[in-house]
Amino acid sequence: MWKYRNADSVPEAEFFQARKGEGKRDSPVETWFAVKAAPGAQRCPSMRDGQDRTGDSVVERNLRNEGFEVFMPSYRIEVRHHRQGHWIERRFPTFNGYLFVNIGPHDYRAVEAVDGVSKILRFTKQYEERPMPFEFPQETIDRLRYIAWEQEQNFLVARARRQREEEIEQEQRRRGKPVNASSRRIRRAQFTDLGGGLASSLSSASSRAFITETLQTLGNLANKLD
């Protein structure tokens, strides 16, 4: 039986141990690089509550179709349709304008040729040295995966709570009992300007600091391309 009540309680060490061996590749070496996405390429389709779709963005789908492994940290929220009243799920990138690809040294040009990709982020160590793509450590990607997983679990818990509250409310109406809508307490993620809109309800300050630090690194690299 699952011993934790929510994602906030799961230690990172246990999360990584549980995922050990997942997604093994033929090559043991993973080299992750940051990609600057073209405007609008990270937009994900909205999904009505109950729909079973992946919700991938254009750039994710195009990169996967070309055989590249891609990771776009993201989070989901629920919004109610302003006219019809049903719930809609929306997915947003944690880093607006950026995502990561796992590629080899000969794939740079192929990645940049994919529709939806603007550039691979590069850096220069010395003056007049040829800029080289900036490789992100595997530890950085693992930490970002954990944060994305943590946010997804919190979203699923909040959605299940909201659905159960609505079922109870409908049952009360069916029985003719009064329903005080203002008394309903749906715990939903509160979003701020941090890291492209990442939830301020993120469990630890270290996770929030890590997102901010990574976003600053991406921004600094992107500024050198301009």
Automatic annotation (TrEMBL):
Superkingdom in the source lineage: Bacteria
The NusG-like N-terminal domain is annotated at 58-144
User: Which InterPro entries does the entry link to?
Assistant: NGN-like_dom, NGN_dom_sf
Keyword field contains Transcription: yes
Alphabetized, the UniProt keywords read: Transcription
Gene Ontology terms describing biological process: DNA-templated transcription elongation
Protein known as: NusG-like N-terminal domain-containing protein
What species is given as this protein's source?
A: Rhizobium laguerreae
